[in-house]
Amino acid sequence: MLANHTRTPRACFFGFWEGNSAFSGIDRTIPRIALGKDVFRYYLLRGAVSRAGDPFHGLLAHLWWPADRAWFVAAHFDFDCIFVGGTAACIDELVLALIWKPGTSN
């Protein structure tokens, strides 16, 4: 769904929190970014938005966004929740997909 709300669906960034033990021994030349006042560091990979569900060292991306920055997805590594920021149309489509089930009255 998110691919429909960006002009750059083939250029997406994926951030994986570097503090996970799954990354021990990882190639240190992989690009990284630092975010926040506590300086959370993430390995940064790039690919099409359709690759968002592809694991890296067994883990899914904690952060992802398209090159045009039309939306942003964040999944904190310690919590069972996902935050999504985007246009009203983008968020409306996501919410409707989550709450509306064909063949039900909700």
Would you mind describing this structure in some detail?
The structure is a single chain. Helices cover 11% and strands 28% of the residues. The chain is of the alpha+beta class. It is globular.
Beta percentage is 25-35%
What's the SSE pattern? EEEEEEH
Side-by-side strand order of the widest sheet: 2-3-1-4-5-6
State the share of residues found in helices, binned by percent: 10-25%
Rounded radius of gyration (Å): 15 Å
Overview features:
globular, 6 strands, 106 residues, six-stranded antiparallel β-sheet
Write a compact overview of the structure shown.
It is built from 1 helix and 6 strands; from the N terminus they run E-E-E-E-E-E-H. The chain is of the alpha+beta class and 106 residues long.
How are the secondary structure elements laid out?
Layout: E1 12-17, E2 32-35, E3 40-47, E4 63-66, E5 72-75, E6 82-85, H1 88-99
Antiparallel strand pairs: 1-3, 1-4, 2-3, 4-5, 5-6
